[in-house]
Amino acid sequence: MLIVQKFGGSSVADAAKLRRVAGIIAEAKKAGNDVIVVLSAQGDTTDDLIAKAHEISPEPNRRELDMLMVTGEQISISLCAMALQEMGIPAISLLGWQVRLRTNSEYGSARIRSLDTERIQQELDQGKVVLVAGFQGVNRRGDMTTLGRGGSDTTAVAIAAKMHADLCQIYTDVEGVYTADPRIIPNAKKLDEITYAEMLELASMGAQVLHNRSVELAKRYGVELEVLSSYVRKPGTKVKEVVKTMEETKISGIAKDDKIARLALVGLKDEPGIAFRIFRVLAKEKINVDLILQSIGRDNTKDISFTLAREDLNRAKAALEKAQDAIGYENLTVNDQVSKLSVVGAGMINKSGIAVMLFEALAAAQVNIHMISTSEIKISVLIDSSKAEAAMRAVHRKFFEE
Amino acid sequence: MLIVQKFGGSSVADAAKLRRVAGIIAEAKKAGNDVIVVLSAQGDTTDDLIAKAHEISPEPNRRELDMLMVTGEQISISLCAMALQEMGIPAISLLGWQVRLRTNSEYGSARIRSLDTERIQQELDQGKVVLVAGFQGVNRRGDMTTLGRGGSDTTAVAIAAKMHADLCQIYTDVEGVYTADPRIIPNAKKLDEITYAEMLELASMGAQVLHNRSVELAKRYGVELEVLSSYVRKPGTKVKEVVKTMEETKISGIAKDDKIARLALVGLKDEPGIAFRIFRVLAKEKINVDLILQSIGRDNTKDISFTLAREDLNRAKAALEKAQDAIGYENLTVNDQVSKLSVVGAGMINKSGIAVMLFEALAAAQVNIHMISTSEIKISVLIDSSKAEAAMRAVHRKFFEE
Q1: Domains identified in chain A and CATH numbers
Q2: Residue B241 has pLDDT above 90, yes or no
């Protein structure tokens, strides 16, 4: 079997942890598998490097910042190769440019264009574990780039896709994907399997186990993922297309996102093009919106409200206020004390009553709903942040504990 | 003018020092020069990285160790590029592989094979200061290598040679090359100029300003070097082929090497092939010898004694003892309390009396001479280490202060 294993920064933070990771890799190798490993930078290395750059320049040149940052993963892979060799496992470390991991030139958030598997295959054929630096690539000019958030996961999935790996294991500090965040819901259950679509919804809902980008890539290339713990040695959660237990499960999980805000424009003229004029302003500012609700207001006007990342709220407000005349609205109101609660399940569309169960649980917990949004595999509600944890507990009890 | 500037690790140890270095670079650039900069790793970075490796493995794989170590220079050049940009000077950092600095595959002590100037020239043409990572290269396989001791100096000289630079400035923590080590001889004088050959002898004699390897390369390609201080802004010492003041100076400098030992084989048969048998044993162990003296012993035998690095003494002794029968000698004696004192001067061969002056000074200082060796531009004597500093002072007084 060909396995790609990815370990995050906290898993390789020091020599002892690196040895533990090397032990996990060695086990997979000794079981007869070909193993490719993708590592992040050790512990706080990336933050330390950024701090070093900021000592020099408040806004460092992005190309040079990437040149600086890619050293972090380079350190991890070379040390881990040594740890494996020390255990008698042949190993070799390779940088992004050495596996021709080509990206565009968006320094700091580059997108993968292509990947050359020749060198990796050669080293595997010689019986070596191949360690590839995560998070980094090289652009057409031959300059170092970094992939931005979720970069190392994305590197692992891209390699797994291109090498036709049988499995891509993402080792983290949790044991898998849960029906809800175990820090909030102690009774949360680990899922054995989940579909890509469910995982995508959960990731974007703030489940924070896997970055969306890597899940999207895995879905596109049919790479089977497994999320598992680098501390507790037991099976994690498989993320793949068809889940055997789909018919039995109504929903897979519940997620909560607190980092959002709601913005409402009140008293808009009821004429075509209004929504376009609003969201063009936001697109220009590169602000993403999530839930959008349009309702009928008083006196032949309408209201449009939407949610966005809380960190974008002030920029969005400023941009829309500046465009008040061009858009034509009476009032702008904001609420940054809202949270989004979502239930996600691939089986949902075929089941009646999920929404009813959700609303029943929320009503019983005295939680008021501001907005509702549905998709094929999820239902999201916008509620007050102060009630979000209680709401989550109530909904989890309803779906998983009754 | 095209100038290559090289700064060592202590000159770029932190943000404040990097800014100072950026100031020196900016000055050269603003004066209308094209500037290429080669940097070493910051302060103790290289040692820290080696320590990290040793935490994992007592004898780390050399390829992986090089993969680890090259990150040090990468950090320096990217930070320095940011510092220059912060001053409004366009700058770009480039790694060894990005300038196609090809080496052989002797990890840890690789030799430069070739260098591609295309990328450097492109960036210079765009008005940028080009910062190149010192100490590192890439082998035919596309793997990272390091150049070993004196590596960054060698990188700088290699680039200066290939780019036909007008000058290669080596910035250090001393103001230039002195007639003797100023820490021992407070009256030592800074030289304005010195020839490559003199510099080579002084470097190998322990003057420790420039590594031999970079001086040899500079000599071969006619690269004019300047050794100068990154703290005191004044002209340093130029190292070049023809020195204007050659006829006036008898010697350029005095150097002392304490890190040596003497080994003597007594009672060798007086027959052909003896020396070959001895030094073949040492060559197999990769032990370099320096001065060699052969003298006639008692009863038709001969003695051979030689000096070597003190750190190699035990290995040499063991190898020669093991080969006692094959070589055929009576006794082996060692002395690790010896030092080598050398006077160096390109004009020496044409001048009578240098040796006489040297011996006179040593006799007056009551220093006994164990061995004498001469070359076209130097005279070296082996003396007791306990007398070495006094000897150096006496000789310096004789040649430079009377």
Answers
A1: 2-172 (3.40.1160.10), 254-401 (3.30.2130.10)
A2: no
Q: Residues B256, B262: contact at Cβ < 8 Å?
A: no
Residue of A nearest to B69 (CA): A75
A114 touches chain B (CB under 8 A): no
pLDDT tens digits, one per residue of B142-161: 999 999 888 999 999 999 99
Residue position matching structure tokens 């001889």: B185
Which residues on chain B are in Cβ contact (under 8 Å) with A71?
Answer: 71, 74-75
**What is the pTM assigned to this prediction?**
0.81
* ipTM of the complex, rounded to two decimals: 0.79
Query: Most A CBs within 10 Å: which of B25, B49, B73, B79, as the mutation test of the A interface?
Result: B79
| Contact state of B82 with A60 under an 8 Å Cβ cutoff | yes
**Is the CB of residue B190 less than 8 Å from the CB of residue B25?**
no
Neighbours of A384 (CB within 10 A): 15
Q: Is A51 on the interface with B (CB under 8 A)?
A: no
Phi, psi (5° rounding) for residue A302?
-135, 165
Chain A residue with Cα closest to B131: A64
Q: How far apart are CA A7 and CA A133, in angstroms?
A: 11
CA angle A358, A361, A362 (to 5 degrees): 85
**If pLDDT is split at 50, 70 and 90, which confidence band does A347 have?**
low
Retrieve residue A51's tokens: 């701090």
pLDDT value at position A248? 53
Q: B233-265: b or e for each residue (b if 16 or more CB lie within 10 Å)?
A: eeebbbbbeebeebeebbbbbbbbbeebbbbbb
Taking the C-alpha atoms of residue B328 and residue B321, their distance in angstroms, rounded to an integer, is 10
In this structure, are residues B368 and B384 in contact, taking their beta carbons and an 8 Å threshold?
yes
